[in-house]
Amino acid sequence: MASNTAARAAVGAAKVVKPIFSRDLDEAKRRVRELYRAWYREVPNTVTTFQLDITTRQGRDKVREMFNKNKHVNDPRVIDMLVIKGKMELQETIHVWKQKTHVMRYFHETEEARPADFLSKFYRGHDP
């Protein structure tokens, strides 16, 4: 009886989950590279279409930074979900379903956060 329970627990722990798109990590990495190349090629068109106040180089650096942010992910299912989200963002950008402010929001992520506590606000000179 106890051996059956242990065997079932071992089988349940070794259960393989169904992949989303990629069968293995190499295929997921290939999909990431394809998405990266698509974004890299689309940056000059995005800069001119949205009349952004950045250079193509800055746009491509931001694309590289966004991809490097998830560089540590090794699960093919998580990678597939990130690729799906990236393709959705790319499609929205290509078809101009976004506005200029939506695109420029990516460049304001590195701005300094506003102070939250009273003393920090006092020292900065404003208290909204």
Give structural notes.
By secondary structure, the protein is an all-alpha fold. The chain has six helices and no strands. Helix 2 (25-49) runs antiparallel to helix 3 and helix 2 (25-49) runs parallel beside helix 4. The longest helix has 25 residues, at 25-49. It is flat and about 65 Å long. It starts with a helix and ends with a helix. The model has no long low-confidence stretch (mean pLDDT 85).
Summarize the structure.
The protein has helices at 2-13, 25-49, 56-69, 76-94, 100-104, 118-124. It is mainly alpha-helical.
Provide key terms for this protein.
mainly alpha
Name the average pLDDT.
Answer: 85
Radius of gyration: 22 Å
Helix and strand element order: HHHHHH
Low-confidence stretches: none
Q: Specify the biggest β-sheet.
A: none
User: Per the principal axes of the C-alpha atoms, what is the gross shape?
Assistant: flat
Distance between the termini: 67 Å
**How many helices does DSSP assign?**
6
By helix and strand content, what is the structural category? mainly alpha
- Residues in helices, as a percent range: 55-70%
Please report which band the strand proportion falls in: under 5%, 5-15%, 15-25%, 25-35%, 35-45% or over 45%.
under 5%
Number of strands: 0
